[in-house]
Amino acid sequence: MSLLNIISLALVVALTRAGPILNNPSRVLRRDAPAPSAYPLDSACGNEWQYLNFNTTVATDRVHLQTLHDVICGGEMRAISSYGQISAQNVNAPYKRYFPESDDEDDYPTNVKDVLGLIAGASSTDGAIGTVVGTFVVDNLGKLLQLRFPISSVFDSLWQSPLTPSIDFAANVPGASDCTVEGTLAYTLEDQVDDLEKIHFCDLSWTRGEASDVDCASLDPFPSTKMDSFSRIALHEMMHYSSIGPNTPVGETIGDCKNADSEPANDPPRVHGLLDPNQDDNPAVTEINADSYAWMSLDAWMSQNCIAGSDTNNWASFFTQNPPPYNE
């Protein structure tokens, strides 16, 4: 029998014995979970997020690494979070599409401004983005299905190859949604295997481009998904971190709220619908809904970027309408 046949036979036997483990992801073990690292393709910029489970020998991973690096170090994340912060401070049109004005109990504009200020940071001299972003971890491959073979270390190396099957680390968190859920772009969770709070971007998210590449002439007179960008998705996920909401006057983790029809309040019509008195009329939940921050910030930046003329404070002159009702 050839060496290749011997290896193949042993592998089949090992996989057969390991069948119950494969059928129960919660019991799959990961040998020596890797630690997050700085940007592996070149020098990292100030406060750049950390990376985990990227294979720099795989072309797709290198492209994704570059996208993640550029959204921070190229300045787009600071730009959209800063314009969102300014919009909240000025309580102008983009802000008022997604958040309420102050009342006797809550200073909503200040709360929103403080949340986005953690992401934007104080100034470019402190780094390319806020200090807190440097503690964020992006996990690329999720939870590795690595089996432990007592026969030979040869088999371990087979399962550490780029062809190794993997599942999202959300499988470690009971009840959590992962990339198998239709329409999911990304998620942020604490992995119960390595105890790290991490962001994972699903395949669909990588199809989004840069906000600066959006053709202003192609947009509707109201904010819509036509202006979506990878930076908007990334900002949404940043909002979920436990070091954001609880460390501001919001006082709690920013999650994913639902509209009155029990569907997630994602995308401009539904985010606006939370606030709209003719729809959900539920303004209090806007400050704990991640997509409200993400779309308001992108709306503010896009309005500023697309507006004609030099009157950059008149952001309402670009989007002349609010998003249509989500149930139309």
Automatic annotation (TrEMBL):
GO terms for molecular function: metallopeptidase activity. Keywords: Signal. Residues 259-282 are annotated as: Disordered. Residues 1-18 form the signal peptide. This is Lysine-specific metallo-endopeptidase domain-containing protein. It comes from Letharia lupina. The lineage of its organism: Eukaryota, Fungi, Dikarya, Ascomycota, Pezizomycotina.
